[in-house]
Design a protein that fits this description.
With 427 residues, the protein is α/β, with parallel strands linked by helices. The protein has four domains: 2-116, Methylthiotransferase, N-terminal domain (Rossmann fold, 3-Layer(aba) Sandwich); 129-245, Transcription Regulator spoIIAA (2-Layer Sandwich); 249-364, 2-Layer Sandwich (Transcription Regulator spoIIAA), CATH 3.30.750.200; 370-424, OB fold (Dihydrolipoamide Acetyltransferase, E2P) (Beta Barrel), CATH 2.40.50. It contains 13 helices and 19 strands. The strands form five sheets. The protein has a six-stranded parallel β-sheet with strand order 2-1-3-4-5-6, sandwiched between helices. It has a five-stranded mixed β-barrel with strand order 15-16-17-19-18. The two termini are 41 Å apart.
């Protein structure tokens, strides 16, 4: 039978979808597009109300198309009753994704709907490993799950539960396999990646240091890390380890101390700025990207202006802007002084324009430079890839996918830096 997987949300979901894909193929199922599929797996997201709505729309679309329907992920975990009313064939949450093939085979044998959720608070880390990403040049490796931060606006600690981590040696072995199978860039990911810590005392820096010894691995990227987890040990590793990429995604969420406190974020604006300065002192050309939520309860016009000022002072390479989404069950949802939707929409637009200008300025800084690009997409007359500091590069010729090239940058156009190939990088 043929299947199609629809993935919504974060890089953890992307990794888990790739696991499901690999398991299904190993058990004789064939991957295809939505129209040709007999089975559709929807890996849902619940980070915002919009993500929930998008997830549910995908479910209804697949149901109308008459597919055998498998639904999993954060939205199904968060809204179990709502999803149970949709007539879904297999409905699970965030646990048992690695068992998807055996669950599906059981359903096909009995034709009895399967619904399985767990109430236990202390989840074990679900052991997942993958050999190769079939559709991606860079490989994501989930080393951590869950979050104990309980930011006041966030539902994720309730649907992903407690922090748990992949065993140190298992993570290393998985990365060795991925590199052996051709991946030159590894992205370490998790719900709260920087919290990675094993019972033996290994932390994220130890893991980065160890995998950098893999000769064929050229780039190590952290999907996201909190400012509070950028300690002296990690900074020293960034300074000494040339395989760590020149890009860090460090969520700010607000540029106002008053709102950070309401959000239960565990730092001040000044603390955040100090961490960025420490990284830039090591890597002056580093790309710093971030997340910012606008319209959180109590955010006045003046406090929003503080966020604008902070973002401009830090001079991010890009800002991912999110209007505050009221999530039932979180502390922020019970707060007074909720911001009107039209104000949130306007603030999102304002900060989005600032992000666009910052990104363009960061791009233009690199014009007439020669950079190393890992090619990720290849078409008949052009190739697309990223630099170590996450500049998106387009070259007007067909190059080899998953190879590194030196490219001379000539222009900025539609979110890309355009460049001309100089030579292939010998490894």
């Amino acid at each position: 039978m043929k299947f199609n997987i629809i993935t919504l949300g974060c890089k953890v979901n992307l990794y888990e979808s790739e696991i499901m894909k690999e398991k299904l193929i190993q058990n004789g199922f064939l991957a295809t597009d939505f129209d040709q599929a007999d089975i559709v797996v929807i890996n849902t997201c619940s980070v915002t109300n919009m993500a929930d709505k998008k997830s549910l729309r995908q479910v209804k679309h697949a149901k109308r198309a008459g597919k055998i329907l498998v639904v999993c992920g954060c939205s199904s975990e968060n809204h179990q009753v709502d999803y149970q009313s949709q007539g879904i064939d297999i409905l699970i949450g965030n646990k048992d994704k690695s068992k998807i093939a055996s669950i599906l085979l059981q359903y096909l044998k009995t034709k009895q709907a399967i619904t399985c959720f767990y109430n236990q608070e202390e989840y074990e880390f679900e052991d997942m490993t993958i050999d190769k990403f079939l559709d991606h040049t860079r490989a994501f490796v989930k080393i951590q799950d869950g979050c104990n931060n309980f930011c006041s606006y966030c539902i994720i600690p309730y649907v992903r539960k407690n922090i748990r981590n992949k065993e140190f040696q298992k993570a290393i072995n998985e990365i060795k396999t991925l590199v052996k199978n051709g991946h030159k860039e590894i992205v370490l990911t998790g719900i709260h990646t920087g919290s990675y810590h094993t019972p033996e005392g290994h932390d994220l820096t130890d893991l980065i240091h160890e995998i950098s010894k893999i000769e064929a691995l050229k780039r190590i990227r952290i999907s996201s890390i909190e400012a509070t987890e950028i300690n002296d040990k990690l900074l020293q590793e960034i300074k000494e380890n040339p395989k760590i990429v020149n890009h860090f995604h460090i969520p700010l969420q607000s540029g106002s101390d008053a709102i950070l406190k309401r959000m239960n974020r565990k730092y001040t604006v000044e603390f955040y700025k100090e961490k960025i300065a420490a990284i830039r002192n090591i890597k002056p050309d580093v790309s710093i990207t971030t997340d910012v939520i606008v319209g959180h309860p109590y955010e006045t016009d003046d406090l929003f202006l503080e966020t604008i000022k902070t973002c401009q002072e830090i001079n991010f390479a890009k800002i991912h802007v999110f209007p505050y989404s009221k999530r039932d069950g979180t502390l922020s949802s019970t707060m007074p002084m909720q911001v009107e939707e039209k104000i949130k929409k306007q603030r999102s637009k304002t900060l989005g324009e600032i992000s666009k200008n910052l990104e363009e300025s960061f791009f233009k800084k690199h014009l007439d430079q020669q950079v190393e690009v890992l090619i990720e997409e290849v078409f008949e007359n052009e190739s697309i890839g990223h630099t170590t500091n996450y500049l998106k590069i387009k070259v007007s010729e067909k190059l080899e996918k998953n190879e590194l090239y030196l490219v001379h940058l000539t222009d900025v156009q539609d979110g890309y830096l355009l460049g001309k190939r100089k030579e292939k990088v010998s490894l």
